[in-house]
Amino acid sequence: MSDKITGAEALVRGLIAEHVDRVFGYPGGYIIPVFDTLYDYTDRITNVLTRHEQGAIHAAQGYARTSHRPGVVIATSGPAATNLITGLSDAMMDSTPLVVITGQAPASMLGTDAFQETDVMGITQPIAKWSYQIRHADKVAWALARAFHIASTGRPGPVVLDFTKDAQIQLTDRAYEPCRFIRSYIPKPTPAEADIALAAEMINRASRPMILAGQGITIAEAEQALKALAEKAHIPVAATLLGLSVLPSSHPLFKGMLGMHGNIGPNINTNRADLIIAIGMRFDDRVTGVTESYAPQARILHIDIDRSEFNKNIRAHATVHGDAREVLEALLPLVKPARHDEWVRSFDRHNTIEHENVDTTAAYGTDPTKAPTMGEVARKVSEAAGAGAILVTDVGQNQMLSARYFRYTSPRSIVTSGGLGTMGFGLPAAIGAKMGAPERPVCLFTGDGGLQMTVQELGTIMQYGTAVKIILLNNNFLGNVRQWQALFFNGRFSQTPMLNPDFKTLAASYGIPAEDVATRGELQCAITRMMEHDGPYLLNINIDPADMVFPMTPVGKPVDYIMLNPSDVYQPLPDIS
Amino acid sequence: MTTHDESTLYTVTVFSENHVGLLNQLSIIFTRRCLNIESISASTCSIPGVHKIVITCHSSQSMMDKVIGQIEKRIDVIKAFYFTDDEIVYQEVALYKVPTPVMLRENHVEEIIRRHNARILEITPEYTVIEKTGHYSETEELFRELQRYELKQFMRSGRVAVTRSPIEHVDNFLNQRLTNEY
User: Fold this and answer.
1) Domain range summary for chain A, segments of one domain joined by +
2) pLDDT-based confidence at residue B178 (cuts at 50, 70, 90)
3) Architecture per CATH, A193-349
4) How does the average pLDDT of chain B come out, rounded?
5) For testing the chain A interface, which of B75, B79, B82 should be mutated: the one with the most A CBs within 10 Å?
6) CATH fold of B8-83, please?
7) Quick check: B181 contacting A, CB < 8 Å?
8) Does position A342 have pLDDT exceeding 80, yes or no?
9) How far apart are CA A1 and CA B1, in angstroms?
């Protein structure tokens, strides 16, 4: 009997065996035994007590994305489990590895509408890579080992372990053994040689090739392989929102962001390319615009680890099923050195016009007494944050402008809610991002709407002193919806104006230094003070509600239909192609 | 049961681990794509420990490719395939319950049972239960005929199917995987 341990103890020992030293958790009735066990291991595992379970899971997402380790979440049953749903769905869409442990009513009470019982399996199966209910302590080690293996390999994703209260206190003698094999699951398929050969041939024959780089490259740590291939065959690289920072912004072959609010060069040239090489991306509708008129001149070569992405949104002429790094490394020796100078330069010409129209002092204006523009703030913060900075965003205008104009210097430098578009993601994700990469500056761009969806996490920042720099772009509006209302709904601002609290005072009540920035003239010094301050800081920056995000491809338009401002659509000159 | 215009009836065969909640994992994939499941059967199969689920639905080939991709992505699913009717041998079983007095009164009924190669499973003074195994059209035809004789109950099973292919793809797949977990 003496070598038997409780299910809760087995769980915590398993976490330690998986080298987990930080979890994001919130206690409650049916998970108390696990937190009671964690109390014995405070020297090995730190729990970050957020102020809401949604905050815990978004923080775990931020942590996973910057640390390249699975984020671990521990919460109780019922309302705690349902509070995790948004984060689970977000992590599923954005391929973020999470191991999420929820408490559950005792097995004997399942299905009886017991207090704080909810059908976690039924709710989470559509939005988790794997869900499993642990109903006996003997299953803890097995399930946890599988959970880590599944969450962190292949195309990563969130895994849910629903842990009944009785299983937490039962005794078991099962020791933890990491899982390396599941017969029904092939995390890293071997790319077919014929597919690699065909892909190389397509690349060698192309005269206007273009790489669409997705987060699959980041996940596979294929940044160097991507760089080598792009440089050898002289292929311009554009990134999806989540693929940003796979190449440094300053790399001559990096041509910007794709999609609805992407840069002009890559969007226009998507429809001029003769070969699209899509790597670790899934042709999201925000990237493609109308699919019928997407890349009409191009052959599509799709490289992905998830076979179900092939031909899902865009029909591919050829596919390579495998890990981005393995595929790129296999392609490299088969790809011939090439030059596509004119084609590569054409991106820059389009991007220069974008720059002149929306991203220069001419476009921003210079009046020091006026509110700064969002793009201007993004540029200035990025310059001040310097090398190695991580951008975390909320969702909306703050996200699009900061993602596009932030200057990325190293991989894993953006944490944002791409697929699900979760307002409220930013603040907790920034906390986790900082904890996952404590040596790197973390700048959160958020809006007044999104910040208030999870604003309670200022308490988490206070408790742990997490040095997150919060750049609040405050226009007292739900700005992105307002932009659509202004452009497509005759300026009928239905339910978008907001009466906001005094954010500076709010931050102060959590002991977080904060400043109001009303004008452009105050901006630079305030940013400098924020970055020089050793700790968390909030800048409440006044933004003109009429400031919009351009360029923009409206819904229902081809990807090369690009609005430069509310009235002008980009007309590329005939000699630019 | 509804049919989608200009679409084919596909038989989806899923080989999976026998875990609680597996059926839910499959059905939500059909639900998301607004595909109506026409019939469903689940049982053990020739491979110990492996569960086989057969689902029929009307759809297009491109949709089936996507659905199969998303089914196979589920961790507990070993392999999934889809077939058209010419690629498989398949059957359904149907049970019909008619009042015995009607059976005795109407001598057509016996003739109908013989003609359809159906058989009687149980007779009581009150009711008679008839069984017919065959394709959908065959069990449906008997259903229509028996409706004239005060048919009280009717139930058709989901499709059971085996492939015509000489190659056992799942066996090959599993042989390639080392089964060191079980």
Assistant:
1) 5-172, 193-349, 372-542
2) low
3) 3-Layer(aba) Sandwich (3.40)
4) 91
5) B75
6) Alpha-Beta Plaits (3.30.70)
7) yes
8) yes
9) 58
Give the start-to-end residue ranges of the domains of chain B. Answer: 8-83, 89-160
Q: Which CATH superfamily hosts domain A5-172?
A: Thiamin diphosphate (ThDP)-binding fold, Pyr/PP domains (3.40.50.970)
Cβ within 8 Å, pair B75-A129: yes
Which secondary-structure segment (H or E) carries A398? helix A397-405
The reply to whether residue B76 touches residue A131, judged by beta carbons under 8 angstroms, is no
Exposed, middle or buried: residue A465 (CB in 10 Å: 0-12, 13-18, 19+)? Answer: exposed
- Reported as half-sphere exposure (CB side, CA atoms, 13 A), residue B81 has a value of 16
Q: Give the model's confidence band at A177: pLDDT under 50 very low, under 70 low, under 90 confident, else very high.
A: very high
Same fold, A193-349 and A372-542: yes
Q: In this structure, which topology does domain B89-160 adopt according to CATH?
A: Alpha-Beta Plaits (3.30.70)
Structure tokens at A91: 């992590």
Q: Minimal Cα–Cα distance from B35 to chain A, Å?
A: 16
Percent of residues, chain A, with pLDDT higher than 90: 96
The CA distance from A398 to the nearest CA of chain B, in Å, is 31
A308 contacts chain B (CB < 8 A)? yes
The minimum CA-CA distance between A162 and chain B, rounded to whole Å, is 13
Contact A181 B180 (CB under 8 A): yes
Burial A62-77, CB ≥16 within 10 A → b, else e: bbbbbbbbbbbbbbbb
The β-bridge partners of B169 are: none
- Count of CB atoms within 10 A of residue A151's CB? 26
Chain A nearest CA to B46, separation (Å): 17
- CATH topology for A372-542 is Rossmann fold (3.40.50)
Q: What is the pTM of this model?
A: 0.95
Give the residue from B134, B122, B129 showing the smallest Cα distance to B146: B129
Residue with tokens 């991106």: A347
Interface of B with A in 120-149 (CB under 8 A): none
Within 8 A by CB and 6+ apart from A218, the residues are A242, A243, A245, A246, A280, A411, A412
CA angle A108, A109, A112 (to 5 degrees): 140
Among B123, B40, B130, B53, smallest CA distance to B94 is for: B130
| Mean pLDDT (chain A, rounded) | 96
Cβ-based contacts of A314 with chain B (< 8 Å):
none
Interface test with B, best of A184, A291, A306, A309 (most B CBs within 10 A): A184
- For A121, name the nearest residue in chain B, comparing CA atoms only: B21
What pLDDT, on the 0 to 100 scale, is given for residue A121? 97
Counting beta carbons within 10 angstroms of the beta carbon of residue B96, is it exposed (0 to 12), middle (13 to 18) or buried (19 or more)? buried
pLDDT value at residue B8: 94
Contact A307/B72, CB-based, under 8 Å? yes
Topology agreement, domain B8-83 and domain B89-160: yes
Residues 6-45 of B with CB under 8 A from A: 16-17, 19-21, 24-25, 28, 32
* Residues in B touching A150 (Cβ below 8 Å): 75
CA distances from residue A178 to A19, A23, A182, A451, B180 in whole angstroms, order as listed: 11, 19, 12, 39, 14
Report CB contact under 8 Å: A183, B73.
no
Task: Give the CA distances from residue A280 to residues A23, A225, A328, A421, in Å, rounded to whole numbers and listed in that order.
Answer: 28, 13, 11, 19
